[in-house]
Protein 1
Amino acid sequence: MNRQRNVWDRLTEILQAADEARPALERICQACPDLVRVSGAAISVRGGDAVPSTAYASDATVQRIEDLQLMTGSGPCVTAVDEGQPVLVPDLAARGETRWPGFSTDALAAGAKALFAFPLQVGSVRVGALDMYRQDAGPLEGQELADAFVVADAATVALLDKQAARPAGELDHYWWDLDSFYRVEVHQATGMVMAQLGTDAAGALTRLRAYAFAEERPISEVARDVVARRIRLDGDTN
């Protein structure tokens, strides 16, 4: 109980100290290694039907993991948001772990041996996920798991408070950034790839993801190059 009380107190301090320079979501990610004994954490946000997109990441490793999930459209974060249940992977290299074959190998190569994803939700409404990773395999045990749920609750509060602070009908600037990223940049590129390949939107987005995955680049960068006509996904280049 004392340990959980300390975690609550620390999270309360984080939420109270949040400002424009260091928003609450960023502070929560940075504090996760101390609060839950993990190596790093990221918070992603769901926008419409899109794969959750990263809001904040504590380090380059978890940012790479987030990019892999965006590129492949699969992984613990995506599953947690889709199913509304925590996804706990204490050993990503375990023989029986075959849920995300397009993601797991590269996540291991990035330095993640264990992954834990918690949906951020209010009732049945799922707005994002808290992702945590460890450089060593091993489960979240006992109090660690309880603390992780507390951190996920705080992240949900911070996310909803951020939106609630805006006038009715007006999106918070962060949500607008996500909307611009996915609906404008990637959707523009998807439309161009549809024309190049003569396929539908789902097929074009799959091709974008596959190219980004093969080139080990964020899908946003690939989309930007497609829109700028620096690359074509039908094999031709300018």
Protein 2
Amino acid sequence: MYFVPTSGKLAHFFESEENFLQLYPVPVQQLDAMHWSPLAVIELAADFLGAKKGAKILDIGSGVGKFCLASAYYRPAAFFYGVEQRKYLVDHARLAAERSGMTHVRFVHKDFTQLDLAHFDHFYFYNSFFENLAKSDKIDESIAFDPGLYHYYSNYLSKQLDKMPPGTKVVTYCSWDDEIPPGYELKATDMNHLLKFWIKR
């Protein structure tokens, strides 16, 4: 059974990790600790990325939509988009958006290389490419994995970010920074340097 908020009770979901996970079935909840960003991380990232009203932020590898949903709560004047290649995770994200009543989030079922990143202002990246590395924890075995894909995706994202205009912001979490091109300046770190805040010069 899911918790369905009454009017004005949206804050319930953001009082704790446990409350937030009530938006999802148990199998999804069990993946949270490894594969979805903690709320404390999301709040810091959302404050940095969504500071400007109307900003469009893309979560690359959005999973079940936790970053977008929580960010939309913390920064309601911005718009949050998620792209995810597993359709069933996108379905969970869309259902969670309906249950929570969030209206300024969108989820797209695609490989992120099929999107034009120029349509977005800023980006969040919790290293979804790591799944392609041999000893990494994987969400499931529903897609093909290849270490070469890690390098391909990282290089592709780096090239796309390099094309973005000055002032573009990126937040990375648990990343090796392979996807960050030289033109980006590291402005701050948090969470023992696992969370990094970048701006294109």
Protein 3
Amino acid sequence: MLALAAGVIITSLGVTGSIMAFEPEIDHLQHRALMDVAPADAPHPVSDVITVVARAYPGTTVSGVTLGASSSRAYAVATRQGLVYVNPYTLDIKGLKPSGPDWLSTVHQIHLRLNTTWGKPVVSWSGVIMLFLVLSGLYLWWPVKRATVTTGKTPFRTWYDWHNAVGIFSFVFLLVLSLTGVFIGFESSAVPLAYRVTRSAPAAPVSPKIKAQPGVPQITPDAALDIARAALPGATPFFVPVVSPTDAYNVRARFPEDLTPGGRSRVLIDSYSGAVLAADSSRTAPGGRRVETLNRAIHTGDVFGVPSKIVMSIASIMAPVQLLTGVMLWVRRKKK
């Protein structure tokens, strides 16, 4: 009955999770005409890209620029209307991806919080129920140890075999998904615990706000990117904001081993003097933060790139498959 009660939510988590494992790849496939460019010798400065977008969309507000993940990707300029994609080699505007939810972002929100304002605790506790079902399933399987499907028997026996076979072969992956999902769902408690276990402490927070200096020019986004590269050797900056007179540059960067799309490093820079206020590197992060980052990478399948994404995507689908076979067993037993 517990499985039936949580079945709808667990099914939605499994289906949406299998899609989210390839969220960046799906987004690229959908918008290749916007994102893909022909590489050339050297891109134009980011300042020129911002200027082109400001001219093309008068009155808009540009909040930042995401550099292409490779030399064949356009720059994405964040505006109030949405993301404007610009060829950094020719400064041609390739098009606008409007702001607002699309089907992929809706899938993401369903997985996180059922696309509601109240759904996150429900999803979190559903993860706990799923963890219980996975562990109890192993307990129930152990006496029979059945891992094959016998044909030509009764429908009940067929569903029983499928339930056991799918369950035992996907056990480890469903257990990993459940454990990492519970960590994320209860991260307000899990992350401090990770810091205590690793005997580490979060880095001291640094305010992204600075004192305005009227009459003093702020450094350009390109200068901020150069400073970030020097502050984190080996890391590639991929996002630079457009700052106000009281904002520091918060440049985000990734190292080659950072497989998550968002990266896990940043450099905070005084927008007037160019002084580095903070440089947070994923390579030197405290133990607690590393545990948190690794947990998310495992849950999303990013930890080993495409192979682990495929594994986690298939494992996510196994959750609703297990639910289906379990329901069929329950129905057959009721009929008997």
Protein 4
Amino acid sequence: MRGLLLKTLHEVWLPTVLVGIALMIVKAVLTHILPQVLEGASQLLEQLPLVKTLVNALLGTEVGDQITARTMQAVLWVHPVVLALIWGHEISFCTRLPAGEIDRGTVDILLSWPVSRRLVYVSESIVWLLSGMFLIGMGLLGHRLTAPTMPDDMRPDLGSATLVMLNLFCVYLAVGGIAFLVSACSDRRGRAVAVVFALLLASFLLTFLAQFWDPAKHIAFLSIMEHYQPAKILGSGRLPWADVLVLLVVGAVTWLCGCEIVARRSICTR
């Protein structure tokens, strides 16, 4: 087990650190420019009503007639660049086993270790969880470093930011569980990455369509983004336990299914 953990850490520590640094920089920059973005946003909302709908789609909730400072804080946590960095690293990591190993022709060497397949799967998952904590922590660090430059009425308190981070980590667990399951069913890493990416894109599209198209609202609960709404957390100061439970169940069920498939399927190189 110790050898497996060290092997995985040796292979992923550099890209994880680089993505973490990039995420910290992006969050710091977004936090710094947010006050400037807010200036004139309300006027733009009045001149272009479509902007309100686009902001609703981005935040996953109604912003009302005016874009408030608290509403704009939520943009820091749902910005596409932030999510792309986290999910891009996560998808790359979670498709390592077994799809990546089969694709490289090294799965026979990995499975020749005197440990069970489940233990190999668990060791990968432990590093995945640690990587997620590191990345989200780096994002929060970047935000807190430049938060003092924000006006007092726009500066989010650490408690609310921590609740948003907890919700984001639950999203991380759900996406990772799905990626592990898709990888467990695949023999090619590129195919597994494409499937997970398509699922996330469909999730974004469903949330976006729900703001324009009534039929989409009835199935919007199928979207991951429907259960990640920082604007509501910042507005209420409470963690949405129903959404957290849904994300945890999705992550746990898909991760367990992936584990059993890896343990039972026939794996060979071609």
